[in-house]
Amino acid sequence: METPVYPAQNYLSNGHGLKSWLLTKDHKRIAILYLISISAFFFLGGLFAVGIRLELTTPQGDLFQPDTYNKFFTLHGVIMVFFFLIPSVPAVLGNFLIPPMVGAKDLAFPRINLLSWYIYVVGGIFTLFAIVAGGVDTGWTFYTPYSAASSSTNVVPTALGVFISGFSSILTGLNFIVTIHRMRAPGLHWFKLPLFVWAHYATSLIQVLGTPVVAITIVMVFAERAFGFGIFDPQRGGDPVLFQHLFWFYSHPAVYIMILPALGVISEIVSTFSRKRIFGYSFVAFSSLAIAVFGFIVWAHHMFVSGITVYAAMVFSFLSFSVAIPSAVKVFNWSATLHRGSLSFEAPMLYVYGFFGLFLIGGLTGLFLATLGTDVHLHDTYFVVAHFHYIMVGGAIMGYLGGIHFWWPKMVGRMYSEFWSRISAILVFVGFNLTFFPQFVLGYMGMPRRYHMYPDEFQVLNVLSSGGAAVLGLGYILPVLYLLYSLKYGEVAGNNPWGASGLEWRTQSPPLTENFLEVPTDIPEAYEYTPKVIREAKLV
Amino acid sequence: MHGHDHAHHPALQHHFSTMSQQREAGVLGMWVFLLTEVLFFGGLFITYTLYRMWYYDAFALASKSIEIVPGLINTVVLIGSSLTMALSVRAAQTNQRKATVNWLIATIILGSVFLGIKVYEYALKFEHHHVPGASFDFYHHSESIGEPLKEPAGGLTMGRDQVQRTTQIFFSLYFVMTGLHALHMIVGIVILFIIAWMAHKGRFDSEYHAPVEMTGLYWHFVDIVWIFLFPLLYLIERH
Question: Which of A256, A494, B66, B223 has the most neighbouring CB atoms within 10 Å?
């Protein structure tokens, strides 16, 4: 095998200087802009988590005042949810990969793509302003009437930041939908698309349909705080529970905005490192759409103890189980793909193995919480905290990191350290479980969330959790170091270091600004790892 | 592929292969955007429906306190502006540059008339103490002119205090809904100015007029929102 050469002409070398980045319309450069900005927010949100875990190593409230602690968990949630998880996979990997995956030169609306990044940055600035001005303490859910009437903290700038960044999310989704419909290369019909694209299509539908509802809800809270309107104020006949309905109508599906694209990443990696076509392609494809649809009819399971009627609660409890079906379809099909596959253990795949365990636990504990009776017991305890971290961190971030490791050679044209990347994948898995598994136990024992103090008997488990968080933090910092190191010193990756089958691997790494020299015409089936292809490409 | 044997249309962006692909992408994008707008206003309509169900008497009283004539005129004006907008799209499709510009300007004028009347209506609300907040007093106006409120059929089922509180919710929704609608009108008028200027410069022809078409879609959408707002806010129990 000849040594690959780093191509002199590529999207990174096409234009230098800050201006060539800040005014770029190239989806790949915009993806890099997103990568840098969401990473900054990730570590900022992580800092607040460090504060929370430090405070909780002792039962007494000895590090922060209660008010400060409230601000810490609020800002941790707001930043991680709206400024990291929501944009993470779509805005970075989706942005970078959907055009080459559909055989296009760019997304349908390159200027709108850049605009979405600027909107994201403006939203981020509002939220940063709120932090500098003294923080906000409503919890990331902004529940009324506290957020609308009582809280004296910076609710308005934070809510505006979330409102503004929502438009960036909408524009990304809109761009993907139009691109997937209208920009596919000739001959690339829907069932030849990678499942990553299907997952992003489903995600985009949620972004487009859900985000406007939370936007209008924030407008009403804003009107209430700024002009004294009383839409959610019970003193004036308003209904605070209505706020929760509107909020969760978006914010429950928003969980699927975070996890669905990660599920798309998993499909790509599993297939590549099993050297097999994904098992049950069309089932996995439609399960993404099913999750998007079911996601919109389960929101009130967040409100079982908020004073909705028992009948509504029973219906929503029942409906919530429906999400388990398409999720299980995916997991079973991935397992079947692994079965008798030609497996290997590179870093992206290690993240995927870790993902399986965490997503499984996160998904199954979700059933406990969908069950009306157990939820009444577990509501607002650490059980809930553990559950959604297993999905949103264990699921979404493992998928995101797996994807970053998988496509990094494509994005920058160089390989990172194989050794350190495996170490980091293992650290993240071990650290994550150590952090969040004890929280299931704590929650089951009755430790409520959002308090900075707890009874002495909970200390052992809390110390375990804080210790795990330190390991997890290390696992997150390592990739920053070796990925940055690889930019200059990494081995040249070549077009297709993993021997993967997708269209994006046919072009050079890093790709040209226009992705392909010629629009691809001989489109293969998705995941074409037939014995003949594997033999000819010497993939095993 | 094709495209090399004949000259590209100057408006064809590099990442599209044909003008029709570019146009279809743009129009689909606009429809998806309008879908988000439906959901955006949808949150308000849900809220409106809930409170109207709970506080029907207050909503009926408050609705009847709004002067109907300006709203009626505005409805006619806005439907007229949709007609002029449609005519300008038609003119752009048939290469009539002058007519395109004129119809766009007519649309701008009608849109501005709507906003002017809206400002007048808002001023009335301030005068009548019908703006939610500290100085809100639903009874102030009817009492100062000595004209009793028109109670709903079957009489009022709530006391004066509750009427004060819940009519305030009606007017909160009135201002949020019509305010956001007006904001959409203002954005629309700005876009119309840009499109009219581009049309004047001769940017559009029968092959490339997607921006006019998409502006039209947006304008019609804003019009339709008003078609829903008008009966919901002005016409409760007006018979």
Answer: A256
Alpha carbon separation from A206 to A259, A263, B97 (Å, rounded) = 12, 15, 40
Range of the domain at A329: 29-537
Reported pTM? 0.95
DSSP state of A448: B
Distances from the Cα of B39 to the Cα of A165, B25, B59, B225, angstroms: 17, 21, 23, 12
CB A231 to CB B180 under 8 A? no
d(CA A9, CA A508): 10
pLDDT digits (tens, 9 = 90+) for B97-125: 999 999 999 999 999 999 999 999 999 99
Total domain count for chain A? 1
The nearest alpha carbon in chain B to A230 belongs to: B169
Question: Does A480 reach chain B within 8 Å, measured CB to CB?
Answer: no
* Assigned domain for A2 exists: no
* Euclidean distance between CA atoms A403 and A406, whole angstroms: 5
Residue A120 belongs to some domain of the structure? yes
- Contact (Cβ atoms closer than 8 angstroms) between residue A291 and residue A323: yes
Structural domains of chain B, ranges and CATH numbers in brackets: 20-234 (1.20.120.80)
Chain A residues whose beta carbon lies within 8 Å of the beta carbon of residue B21: 182-183
Interface check for B116 against chain A (CB to CB < 8 A): the answer is no
Give the whole-angstrom CA distance, residue A46 versus residue B58.
49
> What is the interface pTM, i.e. ipTM, of the complex?
0.93
Contact B165 A230 (CB under 8 A): yes
Q: Which distant-in-sequence residues (6+ apart) come within 8 Å of B112 by Cβ?
A: B189
Whole-number percent of chain A with pLDDT over 90: 89
Phi-psi group of A15: left, alpha or beta (phi > 0 → left; psi -120 to 50 → alpha; rest → beta): left
* Residue among A179, A209, A219 minimizing CB distance to B176: A219
CA distance B179 to A157: 21
Partners of residue B33 in chain A, C-beta under 8 Å: 174
Q: Which of A180-194, A209-223, A276-290, B146-160 has the lowest mean pLDDT?
A: B146-160
For residue A494, tell me if it sits in a domain. Answer: yes
Does A218 fall in a domain? Answer: yes
**Do A222 and A147 form a contact (C-beta atoms < 8 A)?**
no
Beta bridge partners of A414: A492
A–B CB contacts, 8 A cutoff, strictly below: 117
